[in-house]
Design goal:
heterodimer, A: 483 residues, alpha+beta, Neuraminidase, four-stranded antiparallel β-sheet, 27 strands, elongated, B: mainly alpha, 0% strand
């Protein structure tokens, strides 16, 4: 009896699951918690571009659990370096996320030396490792075999006060071997060191935000009172990354200003902000929670960059023009959600997110939508408009809310000479500048086509008006004569 | 006579002093009122069409926030506020205008907004981004013309001196602000009273 009942029940469940799975394939209809921001600043539903596939913890790797890991770095050849701060070691994984080695000491002048609460790691394309050894107040530069190259500690300069304590937190190195260090308690920007490890200057200080009310109180208070008040200091940076051209991408804890910056060699901000809203994480939020607090940034190729919002655990990815591409992640207990995320990095197309409290790495893999969109943006960046055209067409078939994709299609159509079609697409992406370009060409085309007809009509109308007024004049004169 | 319906408001636009004098002393009340209401109607229609059909380069149309009823309200409510505030002030300050005259003069002053903006609804679809300067220019011309007509109308209707008219117009704006504030206050108070009564009613119902 029971068996009999079971089979139809099983079939029914299978059917229900099947319906669910079927709905899953039609990605636009799926109740996905992913979203993008529209031109109007509303959150529009979007299919998931990335889905979490697995969790990796230290014990899974066979090296013992991670303790408060604080940074990770992926090299160009897809080796993953995890900085396990609590255990004062570096754990190296290969492209399959299998353990290669774990390093907890290096030799310095014949003596073994170790890290103490290191916070930041950077690995160059040659495999040289830089560690911001925060507890020991120094930067350790190792070669690809973890042999010591140099140590940078207690930098000296007239720019630094005598009481200055060097506490490096995050670190990057460019192709010219210059080292940029984000140090705790430094408000003047990043510390730049030359190839020999000597401190040269600060770069890219944030601007001071002055609260008008606070400023008013400061003006009317005495010196003694003022010394007790909060000082107006620029916000500190929260993280940095460097792209292949040597531009530094940085995030800061600013609530009001631009919290993502792209710094050139002079330290000025050259991030393109031509999207519908400035890249800043969430633009809609509960006012009690406040805006996003970005704590990590990762630059991929083609100027695509991703930022991690520590407050809500979301990863936002933007293209070089500042258009939001996709959002994933969140705080919670499920796979694909975090407790206290601290670092993100791309391993090829996929994402690794490091969780400090759980000591785990979450692996996110692209969905078809994510892959198509990534490829579309990349080929658009490279100027391959035909490929971009086809790929953008596929992305909007999956997500009609992706407004900036229409501009990509419009540009390709403009190049092909389909001005009318280009206009339609630029209008959909609410891109007035390009719409105007397409419109001018379209107008010229129409005018050229119909020029004889238009001129004839104008001529006829002109003569008609002239004739009518002439006849009227004559009639009135006759009337006047008869009266 | 039938031509007068169109000719009079148009000639008032270009000869405001004569026109408003005519409006106050020579024309019949019905005649001016009917024209006033039709101008008001046209302004509302222009605004609705403008928000729906203006060119993409001058107006990004959001279908979700478009509301024709609100467009009408945006025309009528400020106009009534203006008239009431102006009337209240000028009766205290020796103005000779009646409320109807204030209303009709204000409505007549709105005419340039229709005459200039209405063709631009379609013209704006035929311009490029660089040429939109013309659109914004003619819009400002329309607004300036409107303000000028309002000024002349007010001056003629109340028989004020120019400087006094300017003062009264500024004061009217302040009074409009007051009125808005008081009506908001009134509404929120009424809301609270209603809420209070309904709570008491609920309390009584639940008790028994």
């Amino acid at each position: 009896m029971k068996r009999k009942l079971k089979t139809p029940l099983l079939i029914m469940i299978c059917c229900l699951l099947g319906v669910g799975a079927g709905a899953g394939n039609v990605s636009a209809k799926r109740a996905s918690d992913s979203y993008i921001y529209s031109y109007w600043g509303d959150a529009a539903a979007a299919p998931a571009a990335y889905v979490a596939t697995e969790w990796i913890s230290g014990s899974d790797l066979g090296t013992g659990a991670f303790q408060e890991p604080s940074d990770l770095h992926v090299t160009a050849d897809h080796r993953v370096y995890v900085l396990d701060s609590g255990n004062n070691r570096i754990v190296v994984l290969d492209h399959d996320l299998k353990l290669v080695t774990a390093v907890d000491s290096f030799t310095r002048e014949g003596e073994p030396d170790a890290f103490l609460q290191p916070q930041g790691i950077f690995v160059t394309d040659d495999g040289e490792v830089l560690v911001a050894d925060t507890g020991n107040k120094r930067v350790v530069h190792l070669d690809s075999d973890f042999e010591l190259i140099k140590i940078i500690d207690s930098p000296e300069s007239e720019l630094l006060q005598d009481s200055f304590r060097f506490e490096p937190v995050r670190i990057v190195m460019d192709h010219a071997q210059r080292i940029y260090v984000m140090a705790a308690g430094v408000f003047d920007g990043f510390m730049e060191f030359d190839a020999e490890g000597a401190f040269t200057s600060f770069i890219g200080a944030n601007r001071v935000y002055i609260d008008p009310i606070e400023y008013f109180w400061k003006q009317i208070s005495t010196k003694a009172q003022r010394s007790q008040m909060v000082m107006f200091t620029p916000t500190e940076f929260t993280n940095l990354d460097i792209d292949s051209e040597g531009f530094i991408y940085a995030t800061n804890g600013d609530q009001w200003g631009n919290n993502i910056k792209k710094l050139n060699a002079q330290g000025s901000d050259i991030l393109r902000r031509t999207g519908y809203s400035d890249p800043q994480g969430d633009i809609l939020y509960v006012s009690s929670e406040g805006p996003s607090r970005l704590i990590d940034i990762d630059v991929a190729d083609s100027e695509i960059y991703s930022v991690l919002d520590g407050k809500r655990g979301r990863v936002f990815t933007y293209n070089g023009d500042g258009h939001l591409m996709y959002v994933f992640g969140g705080l919670g207990n499920q796979l694909g959600q975090f407790h206290t995320p601290v670092a993100i990095d791309r391993i090829g197309e996929d994402f690794l997110v490091l969780d400090k409290a759980l000591g785990e790495i979450t692996v996110f893999r692209t969905t078809e939508y994510g892959r198509t969109l990534n490829e579309a943006v990349k080929s658009y960046y490279r100027g391959e408009e035909e490929t971009a055209f086809a790929l953008f067409n596929r992305t909007i078939a999956m997500n009609a809310n992706l407004e900036f994709a229409y501009a990509g299609i419009g540009k390709a159509l403009l190049r092909q000479g389909d001005y009318k079609g280009a206009m339609v697409h630029f209008k959909r992406s609410l891109d007035q500048k390009n719409y105007s370009k397409a419109f001018l060409l379209y107008r010229k085309e129409v005018m050229r086509e119909h020029f004889p007809l238009i001129m004839t009509m104008l001529f006829l109308a002109g003569t008609g008006i002239f004739a009518v007024s002439r006849i009227r004049n004559v009639k009135e004169r006759r009337k006047g004569a008869s009266a | 006579m039938s031509r007068e319906w169109i000719r009079f408001p148009l000639s008032l636009m270009v000869h405001p002093f004569e026109g408003y004098w005519d409006l106050k002393y020579d024309r019949s009340r019905n005649f001016t009122l009917i024209i006033s209401f039709s101008v008001l109607f046209l302004v509302a229609v222009t605004n609705i069409l403008r928000s729906q059909y203006s060119g993409f380069l001058v107006h990004v149309y959001n279908p979700e926030s478009m509301n024709s009823v609100m467009e009408i309200v945006y025309v009528i409510v400020p106009l009534l506020f203006w008239c009431v505030a102006n009337w209240s002030l000028t009766t205290l300050m020796d103005g000779e205008g009646k409320f109807v005259e204030i209303f009709t003069s204000t409505c007549f002053a709105l005419l340039p907004l229709v005459i200039i903006q209405f063709p631009w609804i379609w013209l704006s679809n035929l311009v490029s981004l660089e040429e939109t300067a013309f659109y914004y220019f003619s819009n400002s011309v329309a607004v300036l013309w409107f303000v000028y007509l309002l000024f002349v109308g007010n001056m003629t209707v109340h028989q004020f001196s120019p400087s006094k008219t300017i003062g009264i117009m500024l004061l009217t704006l302040v009074a409009m602000g007051f009125m808005a504030f008081i009506s908001l206050l009134f509404f929120s108070l009424v809301q609270q009273i209603v809420a209070f009564i309904s709570v008491i009613y609920q309390e009584l119902v639940m008790r028994t």
